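Human: Cast an eye over this sequence-structure pair and say how the chain folds.
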Amino acid sequence: MNDDQLTIRQMCEAFDVSPRTLRFYESKELLSPIRQGQKRLFTRRDRARLKLILRGKRFGFSLEEIRQLLDLYDTGDQQETQLRRTYDMALERLKDMERQRDELSEAISDLKEQLAWGEQQLAAYAQARAAN
């Protein structure tokens, strides 16, 4: 093993993921570590891909979308196609996230109004009970 390769344990520690997660991504052909018997050695390329996978998951991209973006790396145009497609998908994802945020903000506001109404009703019941 050299400095450019990490074991599965080192990858787990570096990226705060479980071995199961790494094996899952490997089974989905998103990562392709070097196999030496039972041992897996992850290269710089695997580390870069895992970083992109985790970032994509954080932003809500599906594994299939992430795979498509990663596959564009090898198109031979110095990643211009990959960057353009990633940028376009990220813009769409941002719009979706902002829409979801707005819907959630509206739901939170509505729930707060309902809770305030409920609090007033409970206070009125308590006052009426105290007066009796």
About this structure: The mean pLDDT is 93.
